[in-house]
Amino acid sequence: MTASKIAFVAATSDTAQKAYKKLAAKYNHVSPEEADVIVALGGDGHMLETLHAFLERDIPIYGMNRGTVGFLMNEYRETSLVKRLAAAETVKLRPLEMTVQDIDGNSTSSVAINEISLLRQTRQAAKLRIKIDRKVRMAELICDGVLVATPAGSTAYNLSAHGPIVPLDANLLALTPISAFRPRRWRGALLPKTVSITIDVLEPRKRPVSAVGDYTEVRNVKRVTVGVSQNESFLLLFDPEHNLEDRILNEQFTP
Predict the structure, then answer these.
(1) Full-model pTM
(2) CB neighbours (10 Å) of residue 116?
C-alpha cells in the first residue's frame, strides 16, 4: 500500500515508548485522524487495543513487535519502513460478535478479534447448553467454560485449551471446551463461520458464569449468542515473507 502519512501508537512499556520516539522523529508522523496507516508498537495486547480504538476508521494497521508474544506483529526494524508498508499484504479479518443477556435482563453487545469465552465465576463448574442455529447440539456441558475462536485466534487461548489450529482461509470457527468434566471426552467442534451459536447458562444463579470478548466482560450471564460480524472488519498489514497465514500454519509444526 502507499502510505504518505503514518501515525505511530505505542504501548506504555519503556521499550515501546523508546521505539515510538525514534520512529516518530524519523518518519512523517501525523495524528491517527490524518493518517493513511497506523503503525502499532507493542505486543499482541496492544494490537488488539489499537484495532478496537480505530474500528470506525476502517484504516490498515501494521504492527511492529515491541512486546512479548507478537503473533499479530511484524519484526521491529527502524529502517525502510515506507518500503515495508508498500510491500505489505493486507489481511481483512471479520471479528466475532456477541450478544449477552445477564440474569437481570440487561443486554450487552461487543466484538472480539480472537475469541469469545464463557468462564465459571466460582468454585462450582458451569453447566451450559449449546445450540447451533437454534438446534440443541449439547443439552448439558459441565465444564470450567467454553470458547469460540476465529482462525486468527485459534493459536491463542483456543490452542492453550487444546483446541484445533484453524487455517486462515478455512471459513471455520472452533468451539472448544475448557476443562470439560461431562461429557469428559468431548473435545469441541469445528463449525462453518455462517452459524449462530447460542450458549445458555443452566443454573445461572447457583453456578454463575462470565462472558469475555477481548476487553468486554459481562458477569452473571444467562445467555450468549455468538456469530461472525457482518458489519465490522479489521485491516491488518503483514510483511510478505512472514504473513499471518504462514504463522498459523507454522504453529502446527512447532514442537
Answers:
(1) 0.89
(2) 30
Q: Which of 14, 44, 144, 246 is catalytic?
A: 44
Say whether 239 is catalytic: no
- The C-alpha cell at 247 is 504463522
**Which CATH fold would you assign to the domain 96-228?**
Tumour Suppressor Smad4 (2.60.200)
Alpha-carbon distances, residue 57 vs 37, 52, 133, 200, 234 (angstroms): 10, 10, 32, 34, 10
Q: pLDDT tens digits, the chain, 255 residues: what are they? A: 566 799 999 999 999 999 999 999 999 899 999 999 999 999 999 999 999 999 888 899 999 999 988 889 999 999 999 999 999 999 999 999 999 999 999 999 999 999 999 999 999 999 999 999 999 999 999 999 999 999 999 999 999 999 999 998 899 999 999 999 999 999 999 999 999 999 999 999 999 999 999 889 999 999 999 999 999 999 999 999 888 888 888 888 887
Given the candidates 3.40.50.10330, 3.40.50.720, 3.30.930.10, 3.20.20.100, the CATH classification of the domain at 6-93+233-251 is 3.40.50.10330
Residue 253: count of CB within 10 angstroms of its CB: 6
